[in-house]
């Protein structure tokens, strides 16, 4: 995985190919520059969550675009991500959990069905539904 030290010159010199590819950094393990066929360049951090090792699937966290961060800033962020993975944090797993969380709309609908409609009279149900719809 180790390659060249990712510098401004390397970022500017990386040219688009037919397929996307990743140049990995020689200083921070897992840190790389991903180059897309469109010419877009992003910094990524590749890691294995949990105990690590080959039994775990690799995950990739996008740090940001090459226009948003300098290589040094992105390397520092990747190093922080690497340190958090070492202590057991899964950055992409946290994002997935946040996306899978119940929305307020679903929560309100379930509340109305399970608690209000089952236990209240018609006028109270209408009042609760009006409040939920308004807010």
Task: Describe it.
With 135 residues, this protein is an alpha+beta fold. It has two domains: 8-89, Integrase, DNA-binding domain (Double Stranded RNA Binding Domain, 2-Layer Sandwich); 104-134. 45% of the residues lie in helices and 17% in strands. The chain is built from five helices and four strands. It has helices spanning 8-13, 71-86, 91-100, 104-119, 122-134, and strands spanning 21-24, 31-35, 41-47, 59-65. A four-stranded antiparallel beta sheet has the order 1-2-3-4. The longest helix is centred in the middle third of the chain and has 16 residues, at 71-86. The protein is elongated and about 70 Å long. The mean pLDDT is 88.
Order of helices and strands: HEEEEHHHH
- Biggest sheet: strand arrangement: 1-2-3-4
CATH class of the largest domain: Alpha Beta
| Rg calc | 23 Å
Unreliable residue runs: none
Taking the alpha carbons of the first and last residues, their distance comes to: 51 Å
Instruction: Report the count of strand segments.
Output: 4
**Sheet with the most strands?**
4 strands, antiparallel
CATH architecture of the largest domain: 2-Layer Sandwich
Q: Can you give the helix content as a percent range? A: 40-55%
Q: Please name the fourth-level CATH homologous superfamily of the largest domain.
A: Integrase, DNA-binding domain
- Secondary structure class reads alpha+beta
| CATH level 3 topology of the largest domain | Double Stranded RNA Binding Domain
Mean pLDDT: 88
Beta strand %:
15-25%
In DSSP terms (H or I, runs of 4 or more residues), the helix count works out at 5
Shape: elongated
Overall domain count: 2
């Amino acid at each position: 995985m180790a390659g060249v030290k990712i510098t401004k010159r390397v970022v500017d010199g990386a040219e688009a190919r037919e397929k996307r590819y990743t140049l990995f950094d020689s200083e921070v393990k897992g840190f790389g520059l991903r180059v897309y066929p469109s010419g877009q360049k992003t910094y990524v951090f590749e890691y294995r969550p949990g105990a690590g090792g080959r039994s775990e699937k690799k995950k990739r966290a996008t740090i940001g675009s090459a226009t948003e961060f300098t290589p040094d800033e992105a390397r520092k962020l990747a190093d922080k991500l690497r340190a958090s993975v070492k202590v057991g944090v899964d950055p992409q797993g946290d994002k997935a959990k946040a996306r899978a969380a119940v929305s307020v709309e679903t929560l309100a609908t379930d509340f109305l069905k399970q608690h209000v409609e089952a236990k209240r009279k018609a006028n109270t149900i209408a009042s609760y539904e009006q409040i939920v719809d308004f807010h």
